[in-house]
Amino acid sequence: ATHGFLGPLPIADPQSLNPACREDSVLLAAALENRTLWAEQMWDASAKSPVGLLTGTGVQFGNFDECLDVQQPLSSQYCLVTLVLDVPPGYDTLDPETERY
């Protein structure tokens, strides 16, 4: 089960409106399902949902070199994304259990 409000970062988008993106996503998803080496390497190089997101410390870059070095039937691309969340003041004190840590 996925916990948290973001869930895992998607590595593919089989529902994409872009035909090339959709085809590559279906290919990648099938290769991951079959545990194909290039697909596993691509997933391994990808950033995962970061920890510390609500406190502003969540940094996860993935692996630049591994991403671009993967030998696969589709081209990989390394992208950086800035995610800005509007977290209300005092959010970290809304749960009394957090005071125990």
Q: What is the count of structural domains?
A: 1
Radius of gyration: 17 Å
Shape estimate: elongated
- Tally of alpha and pi helices: 3
- The topology string of helices and strands comes to HHH
**DSSP E strands, number:** 0
Give the percentage of residues in beta strands: under 5%
Name the structural class.
mainly alpha
- Considering DSSP H and I runs of 4 or more, what fraction of the residues is helical? 25-40%
Report the span from N to C terminus: 24 Å
Would you write up a description of this structure?
The structure is a single chain. With 101 residues, the chain is mainly alpha-helical. The protein has one domain (19-100). The protein contains 3 helices and no strands. The radius of gyration is 17 Å and the shape is elongated. The two termini are 24 Å apart. The model has no long low-confidence stretch (mean pLDDT 75).
List the helices and strands and how they pair.
Layout: H1 19-33, H2 37-45, H3 64-69
Helix pairs in contact: 1-2
Short description:
The protein is mainly alpha-helical and 101 residues long. The protein has helices spanning 19-33, 37-45, 64-69. The chain has one domain (19-100).
Main traits of this protein?
30% helix; 3 helices; mainly alpha
